Amino acid sequence: MYEIDYERPSTLEAAVQSLQRTGGRPLAGGQTLVAAMKTRLSAPGFLVDLGGIPELRGIRSTGSSIVIGAMTRHIEVSTSQEVMQAIPALARLAGGIGDRQVRNMGTIGGSVANSDPAACYPAAVLALGAMVHTTERSIPADKFFVGMYETSLNEGELVTEIEFPVPRRAGYVKFEQQASRFALVGVFVAETDAGVRVAVTGAASVAFRATDIEQALTASFTPEAARRVTVSADDLSSDIHASAEYRAHLISVIASRAVSQALAG
Fold first, then answer.
1. Quick one: what percent of the chain has pLDDT higher than 90?
2. Tens-digit pLDDT profile for residues 103-161
3. Residues ≥6 apart with Cβ < 8 Å to 212
4. What are phi and psi of 45, to 5 degrees?
């Protein structure tokens, strides 16, 4: 490692001031940043630990939505009665992230702000049409994820909470890359008051909505309708784990399984 200055503020206001003063990096659960620092892929000179800010943690229901604080751990989302009752697919998603250590340390805000191309939460944010609230504004899901490890967040802007509208029904299924447990392909399907939304993670440089499958499911919300869609391999990722063509095939297959889960409740 190398020399790093470190602060652990106890309020959100103090954290923002610290980031502005030092130009440092925020530290949430550390599941990505600390690993990157160990391999020198990232070398921040100053860390602002958000773990001591109570207002960034917690889960609450408004009746029409579930609001989750940015520093809420994956394990807390997966075991929350509010989440399990309102959006069971979101609880299942959180319970399938990484291993026990990752779920006990990783946070929803850190995952979403990191925009890892194979992370699970971005698919939920997009498919549910969530609103990402920050220290500066509220950002709709469709405008939040910009690219690989890139979001629309400004320098020093922090995610404070994520508001998930409660869908009529939803499902999330992922085909895991066995070594990392990240999604080789993950698909979140949601039937909402505004229509059907389908989001894919693991298949490209950033999570995205599968509009062809959305249209098919709008006409017929069935596993067969999703499976019949031929997904283009253009712009999909190809690596040692799977080709773009294989990922394209998986998207419609996994989407059909997510629909089956949604229908099963």
1. 89
2. 999 999 999 999 999 999 999 999 999 999 999 999 999 999 999 999 999 999 999 99
3. 229, 231
4. -90, -15
| Residue 193, φ and ψ in degrees, nearest 5 | -65, -25
108 with 115: CB under 8 angstroms?
A: no
C-alpha distances out from residue 214 to 181, 196, 265, Å:
26, 6, 19
* Residues present in the chain in total: 265
Cα-Cα-Cα-Cα torsion 212, 218, 221, 224, nearest 10 degrees, comes to: -30
Q: CB of 46 within 8 A of CB of 22? A: yes
Kindly state the average pLDDT of the residues 174-202. 94
Domains of the chain by start residue, with CATH: 1-48 (3.30.43), 169-264 (3.30.390.50)
Identify the band that residue 1 occupies on the pLDDT scale cut at 50, 70 and 90: low
Structure tokens at 229: 């869609």
Give the SS3 label for residue 45.
Answer: coil
Strand partners for 171: 189
Residue 21, pLDDT score: 93
Distance CA 131, CA 210 (A): 19
What is the rounded CA–CA span in Å between residue 41 and residue 1? 11
Residues 6+ apart with CB under 8 A from 53: 9, 10, 11, 12, 15, 71
Residue type, 66: I
